[in-house]
Design brief:
The chain has helices at about 20-30, 35-45, 50-55, 85-90, 105-115, 125-135, 140-150, 155-165, 165-170; strands at about 60, 65-70, 75-80. By secondary structure, the protein is mainly alpha-helical. The protein has a three-stranded antiparallel β-sheet with strand order 1-2-3. α1 runs antiparallel to α2 and α7 crosses α8. It is globular and about 60 Å long.
Amino acid sequence: MEKKSYPEKPKTLPKFVADAVILDMLDKAKKTRYRDYILLLTLVRTGMRVSDIVKFRKRDIINDTIIVRQGKGKKDRVIPLETELGNLLGLFTDNMSPSQKVFGIKERQVRNIVYKYNKEIHPHTLRHSFAVHCLKSGVNLRSLQKMLGHSNLNTTQIYLDVTGEDVKDDFKKVKW
């Protein structure tokens, strides 16, 4: 009896959201609850996983970086921290002890906060959006791999296909 072969299921590209949608979420959160705003901003500007956010402690903020300890695959990684978020996290954690969790919430609560400001966005979509935004801004693929904590560069490369839709726009920039 011959073994049937099935066509390989096409890989779906990661979903990401436009900057305008993210800015709208952040604006709503800023007007509603400061902690929610800082949490969303941290997700958007670091690409941290929900599990990383839940374990995130004040001591993990070192100068202009965030150390993700024992992330997925039990690996540590370093994420650069841009100045505005660094300052806001500094103020937000000012009265916390070094071992205190920054947000002190569970994974389910993180999802609920994201849904509170946009019911159609999953927290992991913010991670995908971070990756796409970084690539569109010219971040090196290898650097992005390190920030996201991917073991294999191929995992990070999927974001190149997402940004492939910008090829026509980029081509228009070429002067003949």
